[in-house]
């Protein structure tokens, strides 16, 4: 309960700062706001499900902040190709300033997504979603090869193929994780009948995405979208069809984190997401 209260207080205070445009206080509110959200979600998970990702990982939880930084810089690189989002600042800043501040802010992405998703998983775990699905090795091989083709198409036709930004990475990561024997790979989990996991990731990331877009709306710095063909009917700055990318992004986050944590922290992300408290 203390964790939940701390998360609520930090989130509400930083939310106010983010939207108040009070100089530096607002400019640097993103990181503490999302730390507040992460604490809030983990506290809520403790209260509602008796466990949380933070409790299960303990100090290893800090790895999620570290591995989040290069992951989102990858998507920033992809955005340099498709030009789907752009940042607005209260005043001009240097490239070094931007890179440092952005890296600190990007560090909250993975822990926010996974903390929310494990709460959803715990709430859905009693549902009957345990149907085994066989995935042939040839399918994985084709998927892996397709990832390179998709990235090639992105470079050639960015305005027409921009949704592939949220599809290509999972086609690369999952066959790789499966081939390396990572037990937490989504392919392995689906073969074992754990369909609750991808569903929870989709819902959890959509919830997280809603708050990303909500808190961004009146903040400065902020981001805006220029998405070809589907830039209509916005919820906050995001076109409504853009929210369809969030569930796919959740799969990418999990697959990426499962692969990295397996080797650098000896953490089995599937075990952390298990129904055992």
Automatic annotation (TrEMBL):
The chain crosses the membrane at residues 30-49, 61-82, 102-121, 133-157, 163-182, 194-212, 243-265. Keywords: Membrane, Transmembrane, Transmembrane helix. It comes from the Bacteria. The keyword Transmembrane helix applies. This is Uncharacterized protein.
